[in-house]
Write a structure and sequence with these properties.
6-stranded parallel sheet, alpha/beta, 2 domains, Diaminopimelate Epimerase, Chain A, domain 1, inorganic pyrophosphatase (n-terminal core), 12 helices
């Protein structure tokens, strides 16, 4: 496998993923870091944004460097960069890394193969599942801590095995990871039952903004910087809140507007069934999966709503 060969040929490897890392991004990064360490490589995980509190249980979190720009000393030392779960080379927010030999591992439909080495599989339930093939090809032992990271990647990207990407491959990978030491009950409790108070308070404020459009088939929620301040919360605390309105009976698409910085609005989209929100996000420069996508709208919250919501309603009505 080309990815394993690239890892074997490198000595100093920098691993990163998209901004606002989720379970698949973070779990895959940390598992790959350990795999590189087993191979005797010097490896770093570098992210632009902190992890959400729900992922604080993952092993090796102390190995992550959160920065706005890759330090010059690290950039100079790195001889290979690995992008995980990034459908575009701009997703990590580190343009300086594009000067380095790049490995691109992803399962998004719209990945343009921007790496020197590309391992793309849109049928994969998670990048964490894809890394099992990398681990095997590299001859790395699947340790309990790696299994924990990769199981977390798998379970979060399949929505606790509820989404359409929950295939036989997903269950086969889950079985292998459990056999290697991942503990589903422990991981489920860590992901779902240790929510900080500030997150619950923020959820209450966000859910108070709930709007129902298109005869109840579109649910819209909003978070502002003022809400974060009142709840004493952080941007990463909004992770997964879009799934709350998605669960409402009759809702086909959930839209989450996050107006947290002046002049830009982050929008998360979640859908059910055959409604393709990835295609809609792509028209605004975003991307993702068919049922889970996102974009950044440059402008005000009011402008974002005016441009996006009519298209979401049209998408639902034409489905």
């Amino acid at each position: 496998m080309a990815v394993a060969q690239a890892l074997g040929s490198a000595q100093r490897i920098l691993i990163t993923s998209h901004r606002s890392p989720d379970g698949d991004a973070l779990g895959s990064e940390l598992a790959l870091w350990e795999a590189c360490s087993q191979l005797g490589k010097q490896a770093w995980v570098v992210n632009r944004d902190p992890h959400p509190p729900s992922l604080s249980f993952l092993p090796h979190l102390d190995r992550i460097l959160v920065v706005d720009q890759v330090p010059a000393w690290l950039l100079e030392q790195t001889d290979l960069v690995v992008f995980l779960e990034c459908p575009g080379s701009d997703r990590p927010g580190f343009p300086e890394l594009l000067t380095k030999p790049l490995v691109n591992v992803d399962h998004h439909l719209d990945n343009p193969q921007y790496g020197a080495v590309n391992y793309l599989d849109p049928q994969a339930p998670a990048v964490g599942e894809m890394l099992l093939a990398v681990v095997d090809a590299a001859g790395v032992r699947l340790s309990p801590s790696m299994a924990t990271c990769l199981y977390t990647a798998l379970v979060t990207d399949t929505g606790d095995f509820r989404y359409a990407n929950t295939t036989a491959r997903a269950f086969a990978a889950a079985q292998r990871l459990v056999e290697a030491g991942a503990q589903p009950a422990v991981i489920a409790e860590a992901l779902n039952d240790h929510v900080p108070e500030r997150v619950v308070r923020l959820q209450a404020m966000v859910l108070a903004t709930l709007e129902m459009l298109a005869q109840g088939r579109v649910a819209v929620i909003t978070c502002t910087a003022e809400m974060l301040k009142q709840a004493q919360a952080q941007p990463q605390d909004t992770e997964d809140m879009v799934n709350l309105p998605r669960a409402i009976d009759g809702v086909r698409v959930a839209v989450f507007f996050k107006a947290l910085t002046p002049g830009a609005v982050r929008v998360s989209l979640r859908s059910k069934g055959s409604i393709n929100v990835q295609a809609l996000a792509a028209t605004f420069g975003g991307g993702g999966h068919e049922n889970a996508a996102g974009l950044t709208f440059v402008g005000s919250l009011e402008q974002a709503r005016a441009h996006l919501l009519p298209k979401v309603c049209q998408l639902v009505e034409s489905a």
